[in-house]
Design a protein that fits this description.
The complex is a heterodimer of chains A (about 220) and B (about 300).
Chain A: H1 7-20, H2 28-64, H3 71-79, H4 92-123, H5 130-138, H6 142-164, H7 173-216
Chain B: H1 3-7, H2 11-27, H3 38-48, E1 57-62, H4 68-84, E2 89-93, H5 98-113, E3 121-126, H6 131-139, H7 141-144, E4 171-176, H8 180-192, E5 196-200, H9 202-213, E6 219-222, H10 223-241, H11 243-250, H12 253-262, H13 265-268, H14 270-298
Parallel strand pairs in B: 1-2, 1-4, 2-3, 4-5, 5-6
Helix pairs in contact in B: 2-14, 4-5, 4-10, 6-8
The chains are: A mainly alpha (about 220), B alpha/beta (about 300).
């Protein structure tokens, strides 16, 4: 064992243990670490925003370079704080309206392009490809089989999943069959997401355990 | 064992078993094999295709310390890949918690490879506004970032003299624990046809696979597993290039071994990952068997 002499490593290790103590049950150590985290984050982000946005992009241009146009975004930003004064709280709606307007204007066409048009283009593929068939025949393997059935599987999956979300007709007959297959595709998708989520949570635990065992206790390299 | 007891098992026992499943493989490594996936290989190839001392890779550090166990090893591996091949790097952050992490990673790896700030890499720091910043950089990076992280005017930095917008950036890699790669695809990809790859936490990896099929992403590194694959590729590359041999000759045995450990941090966690997954699968199977057996008994 090679304990760290660094007091900051000790502090980080003790705070990690405070947070993990919640797994046993809620307790004051967990609460203290949680409040410390919230307070520190708020202070840290305030400083980050001041030095990376407010000071270089508003204070310097406005007061040192005389760029008067900076008053407009500065005022819009200040209006947000009017929410703290109930009588004039309505002024903050101007800033919110501007923010939502700009955000929607920027994102709607871009989202259409990225999420819908590009994805539709990706789905419009030939159902069966002779090229992948030849590759499979010449070199039969799991990978070439996957490439062969990949596109048909994707097209069937998209059609069936979309039919599950078609609510203007009762799910009977062909539509009912397709929507049932759609449910299977959805379940596989949810399963993949869940599996990845489990993996992510375990990874976070591994990261913390590596820190405790390596940086703090020094029992591993 | 009584099935009802099994269904009411104390959750703390599960936590304890998961903790043991993580701790023991770290103490006694098994060396379970991990296989290379195509999206990670594609990301590696995309970085590798950038010419040395040419236009830089743009690396966007868009995550907070909570995502560090998964994304920090990726960051280090990508930077090592670039510096071992003399590829220049332009690092920035669009996440408010990212600038400190970005600086720590960049300075550490640059020092290790003897790279000069301003010539071999530039650290632009943080700028709030996500989409607005990405769009602005499409027009003029010098307009989006007036100074670098160390408050040096962008125009005075030698490397930045040749870099103005995405036309001068062959590849952007966004490392994120949130939906920021989508913003890169929306604003830099769709509008400026910028080539983009992403490194994401495992939670969001499944959401990004559709974008690989449409080539909106040229590569994807997902979670700790993806990071360990990239680490492995970089370690192999360094062996081929002789970087590892040079390092071995210039460092003491202890220093070299310490460095080797830090270069395989993600891979070291993969045994724990696999064992913990087996424990979880076992619990899912036991839970389901107990549930169905109990239901049959009730009928």
């Amino acid at each position: 064992m090679n304990l760290s002499p660094d007091p900051w490593v000790w502090l980080a290790a003790l705070l990690t243990l405070c947070i993990y103590s919640f797994l046993y049950k809620d307790n004051p150590f967990y609460k203290a670490a949680e409040h410390l985290f919230v307070g520190l984050s708020a202070g840290y982000f305030l400083v980050i925003y001041w030095y990376n946005a407010v000071y270089p992009d508003m204070v310097v241009p406005l007061f040192k370079q005389g760029k008067l146009l900076c008053i407009i975004p500065g005022l819009l930003g200040l209006f947000f704080f009017f929410r703290f004064i109930p009588k004039v709280g309505w002024v903050s709606r101007w800033s919110i309206a501007f923010y939502i307007g700009v955000g929607a204007g920027m994102s709607i066409p871009a989202t259409m392009q990225m999420r819908i048009l590009e994805q539709m283009k990706g789905t419009m593929q030939p159902f069966f490809s002779l090229e992948t068939w030849h590759v499979f025949v010449e070199n039969p393997s799991l990978a070439s089989f996957g490439a062969l059935i990949g596109i048909p599987l994707m097209i069937v999956g998209v059609m069936c999943t979309l039919s599950y979300f078609f609510f203007s007709r009762e799910h009977k007959g062909v539509l009912g069959g397709m929507s049932r297959i759609g449910i299977i595709f959805l379940m596989i998708g949810f399963g993949a997401s869940f599996g990845y989520t489990v993996m992510a949570r375990i990874s976070l635990l591994i990261g913390r355990v590596q820190f405790l065992m390596s940086d703090w206790l020094g029992v591993i390299d | 064992m009584n099935l009802e007891k099994l269904m009411r098992i104390d959750r703390r026992l599960i936590f304890l078993l998961i903790a043991l499943a993580v701790i023991f493989p770290l103490l006694f490594p098994i060396g379970l094999p991990t296989h290379l996936s195509k999206p990670v290989q594609d990301t590696f190839n995309a970085v590798d295709s950038i010419p040395p001392d040419g236009p830089p890779l743009m690396l966007s550090i868009d995550y907070d310390p909570a995502a560090m166990p998964e994304l920090y090893p990726m960051t280090l591996a990508i930077l090592r890949h670039c510096f071992s091949r003399n590829i220049r790097v332009l690092v920035l952050s669009l996440h408010r918690a990212g600038p400190g992490i970005g600086e720590m990673a960049t300075t550490r790896i640059a020092k290790e490879y003897g790279k000069k700030e301003g010539e071999d890499y530039v650290y632009l720091g943080f700028k709030p506004g996500f989409g607005a910043v990405i769009l602005r950089m499409g027009e003029d990076i010098h307009g989006a970032f007036l100074t670098d992280y160390y408050n040096r005017p962008i125009g005075e930095i030698p490397m930045m003299r040749e870099i103005h917008n995405y036309d001068d950036i062959p590849l952007v890699i966004c490392l994120s624990a949130a939906a920021i790669p989508e913003l890169w695809m929306m604003y830099a990809g769709s509008r400026y046809h910028q080539t983009i790859a992403a490194g994401v936490t495992a939670v969001s990896a499944a959401d990004y696979y559709p974008f690989l099929q449409t080539d909106q992403l040229v590569g994807l590194i997902g979670g700790l597993k993806g990071a360990s694959e990239y680490e492995k590729l970089v370690n192999e590359l360094e062996e081929r290039l002789g970087v590892d041999k040079k390092r071995k000759e210039s460092l003491s045995k202890e220093e070299y071994e310490k460095l080797q450990v830090s270069h395989s941090k993600a891979s070291a966690g993969m045994d724990s990952q696999s064992i913990a997954h087996l424990v979880i699968i076992a619990f899912i199977v036991i839970g389901n068997v107990a549930y169905f057996a109990q239901r049959r008994r009730k009928r």
